[in-house]
Amino acid sequence: MSQNKVFIATSIDGFIADKEGGIDWLHSIPNPEGDDMGYASFMNEIDALVMGRNTFETVCSFDIDWPYSKPVFVLSNSLSDIPDKYEGKAFLVKGTLTEILDEIHSKGYDHLYIDGGSTIQNFLKEELIDTLIITQIPILLGGGISLFGELPSSQKFKCVETKHFLGSVSQSRFEKVAEL
């Protein structure tokens, strides 16, 4: 059975980036031991990542080695190819979300990490998210890029777990409730 999962951090007021698109605030809580807050464990649950062009370009702009050991599928209608240094690591996909998921599933990837604000919102609009793992950083940004947007109808999720990290960070795992 395929699963589409989100693992993302927000401010208390629900933003994933500040008013300038920055994410430095994610490191506002001291983390001297480098606690990954469940990220490595989450990555073991997935086969591949699906992210939008903006998120892909943001990751590419970091001065780090490519951070993913699993295939990354990049949703974009404007990119014509993946930069050479990411060839074989990232793959361009186009079409409707259903077509894209069919293509990815046909390659044997069924447990997907959905990443990026617009991408997550679009998957939610199509009711294609099964799990939301949201880590709340205790900061109010007062504006920026919101994790959630308007939806055509409500969707029910159940909080199945909440953990606390670093004395002030909370992380909740929500599973979609199947409609009968």
Give a quick precis of the structure:
The chain has helices spanning 39-43, 53-61, 97-106, 117-125; strands at 3-11, 15-17, 48-52, 72-75, 90-93, 111-115, 131-137, 145-146, 157-165, 169-176. By secondary structure, it is of the alpha/beta class.
Give structural notes.
With 180 residues, the protein is an alpha/beta fold. A hairpin with a 3-residue loop joins strand 9 (157-165) and strand 10 (169-176). The chain contains four helices and ten strands, in the order ββαβαββαβαββββ. The strands form two sheets. Strands 5-4-3-6-1-7-10-9 form an eight-stranded mixed β-sheet. The protein is 18% helix and 31% strand. It has helices at residues 39-43, 53-61, 97-106, 117-125; strands at 3-11, 15-17, 48-52, 72-75, 90-93, 111-115, 131-137, 145-146, 157-165, 169-176.
